[in-house]
Amino acid sequence: MKVLLLGSGGRESAMAAALQRSPAVTELVAAPGNPGIGRTAEVCSIDVADPAAVVSLAERCRPALVVVGPEAPLVAGVSDALRANGYPVFGPDKEAARIEGSKSFAKELMECSEIPTARGRSFNEVSLAVAHMDALGPPYVVKADGLAAGKGVLVTQDRAEAVMGIEERLVGGRFGDAGRTVVIEEFLDGEEVSVIAFSDGRTVVPCPPAQDYKRALDGDKGLNTGGMGSYSPVPSCSDELAAAITDEVIEAMVAALAARGTPFIGAIYAGLALTTEGPRVIEFNARFGDPETQALLPRIESDFAELCLASATGQLEGMKLHCRSDVCVAVVVASEGYPGPHKTGLVIEGIEEAESVAGVEVFHSGTRLSEGMLRTDGGRVLAVSALGQDFSQARARAYQAVSCVHFEGALGRTDIALRAELKERGRA
Q1: Architecture of the domain made up of 327-424
Q2: Range with the lowest mean pLDDT among 274-283, 289-298, 305-314?
Q3: Domain with CATH 3.30.470.20 in the chain
Q4: In this model, does residue 428 exceed pLDDT 60?
C-alpha cells in the first residue's frame, strides 16, 4: 500500500524508517519530510497544518493510509478533512486532539473521569494565577494552555521567576494564543515515564514505557526543551505498573473521549510522574512523543504500518505489539543555544560514520540540504538511537555514534539513560 506521512522531525524520521520496514508498504510519500526521510521516500513541500493543502496532496497521490506525526495538523483539523474525503487516517480528529491542544480541557476531562493527575486550575488573570500559585507553594509549575512545541512549561523554585512566567504568557504574549490561558499546577515529585498506545477509538494496544529528558543540561538542569533524549524500556516502571497505567489512564481517557462522541484514533500519549502515591498524569499528547518515538520504534518487531492501519480502520481488537528484548537509547544532538536562539545552516558531517556503529540509526530532526551539503535547520538537529543487549551496551553505542557527528557548536546531554544503566548494575 502507499502511505502518506505528515511531518518533518525526528519522530517522523523514525516513523518513516518503521513504515519502510513493513512488507505491506510499497511506496512512502512524506510531507514536508526532511533529508533523512528523503533518502528512501518521496518528499513534497507543503504546509501540513493546512487541511486544504493536505487534502489536495492526498488527491494527487491517493494513499491507502495517512499517518499524521506532529500535533499542529491534528489540532488544525487535518484528520477531519482527510476522513471527510474518504482517507483512512492514523491521527485523531480536531476535537479529540484537544487533550493536547488545551491543557485545561485535558485537566477537566481527567477530573471528570477520575484519572489521577496533579491538582491544577486555569487562569486568564495574572493576580488570580499568582494567588493560586502561592497557595500551592514551590516548586511552581506554570503551563501555557495551548501548543508551545514542548517549551510552554515552566518549573521553578524561584517565585519571582514563576510570576514573570505567568506575566510573559498572559500579558507579554510570549506563546501567542497558546499562552492566553495558563494552568497552575502542583509539582509532582517522582521519576517521569511516557506511556504511548495505539487506539482505534475502542481498543488500546500499548507500547512499552519510555523515558524522556526535557531539560537542556545534564542532571536535569537548564531550560525545558522539546526533549534531549529518551530510552526504553524503563526499569522503574514494571510490567504490572505499565498495565495499571494503560488501564487506569490510557483506556480511561479513550473511554471518556468515546463517551463524548469524539473517539480517539491514533497514538495517545500519557506523560506521568511515578510519585510515592502512585502514577499521576502530567500531560496527555495526541500523537507519538518526540524523542520517545526514536527509542520505541527501533524496538518494535510488529508491523508498524499494519498497526497504524488497524487503528485507522477500527480493527485493533485482538492485535498485540511485539518488541525485541534489546533496549534502546536515543540521544539528541542539538544546536548551541537551544532552546533559545541558535545558528542554522551549519554543515553537518559524520552521519555515515555514526550509522556504521552496530545497532545505530540516525534520525534527522532539523536538517536541510543546501549547495549539496547537509546543514542544520533547527534546534534539535539529529537523534542518534542505539540498540543494545543492555543499557551499558546501548549507551556506549549511542555515545560512540554521537562522537562521530560534527557541526559547529553541536551539543547534547551526556547522561541519557545513565540512571537506568546504574540501576542495571545495582548502583542506583
Answers
A1: Alpha-Beta Complex (3.90)
A2: 274-283
A3: 190-312
A4: no
Which residue in this structure is represented by grid cell 510552554?
152
Q: Which residues of the chain are in CATH 3.30.1490.20 domains? A: 121-185
Q: What is the mean pLDDT of residues 200-229?
A: 95
- For cell 524561584, name the residue: 158
Residue 427: predicted pLDDT: 66
Strands 89-90 and 65-68: parallel
Fold of 121-185: Dna Ligase; domain 1 (3.30.1490)
* Arithmetic mean of pLDDT, 15-44: 97
Under 8 Å between Cβ of 368 and 16: no
pLDDT for 279 beyond 90: yes
CATH of domain 2-93: 3.40.50.20
Query: How high is the pLDDT of residue 103?
Result: 87
Q: Which residue has the cell 532552546?
A: 339
Strand partners, 376: 367
Regarding pTM above 0.85, the answer is yes
Residue 31 CB partners (closer than 8 Å, separation 6+): 4, 5, 6, 43, 44, 45, 46, 48, 54, 57
Q: Which CATH superfamily does the domain covering 190-312 fall into?
A: ATP-grasp fold, B domain (3.30.470.20)
Lowest-pLDDT choice from 97-106, 171-180, 198-207, 219-228: 171-180
